[in-house]
Amino acid sequence: VVELVTGGSKIRVGNATKHQYLDALAQYRLATSLKDEVEQFLKGLNELIPDNLLSIFDENELELLLCGTGEYSIADFRAHHVVNGGSSEFRRILDWFWTAVSNFTQEEMARLLQFTTGCSQLPPGGFAELSPRFQLTAAPTFGSLPTAHTCFNQLCLPDYESYEQFEKALLLAISEGTEGFGMI
């Protein structure tokens, strides 16, 4: 039995104390109980990559470095996605999307996947095996940044006045908007 809170075995958990216990439980499961394993992992990692070099990367960049970018096929992507929204304005946005994505580097494709699905890699079998399918959805806004719902593999694309504005917003979103629900 692990006492999460000092004297916790004598304290009744109720509405007033539940958040204290949940915080303590999360701390225990995500940090305290794994402390030895994490320290050994970091020791081994630091033997390969010195800490001063490792610290310049955020978690998304580190994932790209460790896992690679994979190979992404635009033909596979086009064949295995879902479109939500059929207005003529959204058709124009979809044309711009495919133009932009066709010009993406492998790293930019990895960032698009990270932004939309939460993972920079495709499953074995490519886009056909994504579950749920990659969704392109019309956003009800104009000129704002694209948004994503990673639980649904859904990319929401607003309308823009020009392709240049669209491309700039998409690149900004996938480059800067990949933090998601990162743990502190």
Explain this structure:
The protein has eight helices and four strands; from the N terminus they run αααααβααβββα. With 184 residues, the protein is an alpha/beta fold. The chain has a four-stranded mixed sheet with strand order 1-2-4-3. The longest helix has 15 residues, at 88-102. The mean pLDDT is 89. Pathway: Protein modification; protein ubiquitination. Keywords: Transferase, Ubl conjugation pathway. Residues 1-184 form the HECT domain. One of its GO terms (molecular function) is ubiquitin protein ligase activity.
Computed Rg: 21 Å
**Gap from first CA to last CA:** 26 Å
CATH topology of the largest domain: Hect, E3 ligase catalytic fold
The percent range for strand residues is 5-15%
Number of helices: 8
- CATH class designation of the largest domain: Alpha Beta
Quick rundown:
The protein has 184 residues and is α/β, with parallel strands linked by helices.
Topology:
Blueprint: H1 18-30, H2 35-48, H3 51-54, H4 59-67, H5 74-79, E1 81-84, H6 88-102, H7 106-117, E2 134-142, E3 147-149, E4 154-159, H8 163-176
Parallel strand pairs: 1-2, 2-4
Antiparallel strand pairs: 3-4
Helix pairs in contact: 7-8
